[in-house]
Structures are given as structure tokens and as C-alpha cells.
Amino acid sequence: MPRSLPNIIITGTPGTGKTSHAELLKSHIPELVHYNIGSLVKSENLYEKYDEEWDSYIVDEDKLIDYLEPLVENGGCILDWHSCEVFPKRWIDLVAVLRTDHAILWDRLEARGYSLRKIEENNEAEIMEVVLAEARDSYDSEIIVELQSENDADFALNVDRIVEWIQNWK
Predict the structure, then answer these.
(1) Among 45, 77, 87, 145, which is least packed by CB within 10 angstroms?
(2) Which residues, in sequence order, are bridge partners of residue 97?
(3) Containing H/E element for 59?
(4) How far apart are CA 63 and CA 157, in angstroms?
(5) How many helices and strands (H and E) does the chain possess?
(6) How many whole angstroms separate alpha carbon 119 and alpha carbon 158?
(7) Binding site membership: which residues?
(8) CA–CA distances in Å: residue 58 to residues 6, 46, 116, 164
(9) Which domains, and CATH codes, for the chain?
């Protein structure tokens, strides 16, 4: 059965604005369902354990995929996470990779209270384009879009671009 709405991944290094973009997109197209994967993993116990050293959960990818499978089959899902390679290609119609200048990212992560080690690790990942490389390794290039995400104007422009893409996708 063809989907009436696409499934979209909004991904990027922590602090690039994934959740803000997803929420703004949903406000434009209320039929979309936003899944913040980090929150979902915690609330639905979709993890193996909590890693105190890194202050994060180790996701059980099999549990996550099993949980999401019936939710994404009809389309209309926004998957908001710092990783994208775990999601099967057949699920995904668009991968939006958010990019932020590392100095801006540093300030955002510092404001969140991240440890210095976590801030450094995430900044290095952004500089080295880790999430973008993961997207390129996991999905066809024609469904990947790289978007700057440094201020409110970028957020609005990015969401407008995605809304236009969805209208054309239909």
C-alpha cells in the first residue's frame, strides 16, 4: 500500500536543532508524527543499559526497529535522532542532515550542561562530518539533503524547503 505521507529522518550531531526542526515541521503539517528517538528509547525501555561514563543510553537497535516497524509502515513519520544508519532504507523517503558551525554547536552543548568531554566529542563529530558520512553510506544520495542550522532564519528556511519537498513528493 503506498504511503500518503513520506517518512523523514532529521539527523545531525547533538545540538544541531533536530527536535526544533521536527516540531516546526509538524506545526506546518500536523498529520506528521514526530518520534524523538532519544526520548522514545528511554520511555519504552529500548536500550541495553545506561552508560554512566558517557551519560547516555546504549540503544538496543533490534528493539527499536521492532517498536517502530508498525508505526512507519503507513508513512508520515519524522524520526529525530543523532544517528540514521539503523533505519532500513525501505522506510525512508528523505534524510535531512543538519549542520552547525562548531563554535555555535559548542555554545549550544555548553548551555545544555554537557560535560567537556561530550562537547569535544560532538564538536569533533560535526567537524569530521560523521553524521553526513553515515547518511551517505546508508541511503541513496538523491534522498539526502544537507541543511545549515545555525539560527532561527535557517530553521524557518529549512522547514519551508522540507514542506515544499513533501508537497512535491505527494
Answers:
(1) 45
(2) 11, 146
(3) strand 56-59
(4) 35
(5) 7, 7
(6) 25
(7) 15, 17-20, 112
(8) 28, 9, 20, 36
(9) 8-164 (3.40.50.300)
By CB neighbour count within 10 A (0-12 exposed, 13-18 middle, 19+ buried), where does 84 fall?
A: buried
Residue type, 118: K
**pLDDT tens-digit map of 42-97:** 999 999 999 888 788 999 999 999 999 999 999 999 999 999 999 999 999 999 99
Q: Which amino acid is at 4?
A: S
> What does the alpha-carbon distance between residue 81 and residue 71 come to, in Å, rounded to a whole number?
16
CA atoms within 13 A on the CB side of 84: 35
* Cβ contact 41:47 at 8 Å: yes
Annotated binding-site ranges for ATP: 15, 17-20, 112
Q: What are the residues whose beta carbons fall under 8 Å from the beta carbon of 3, sequence distance 6 or more?
A: 74, 75, 76, 93
The residue type of 119 is I
What's the whole-model pTM score?
0.95
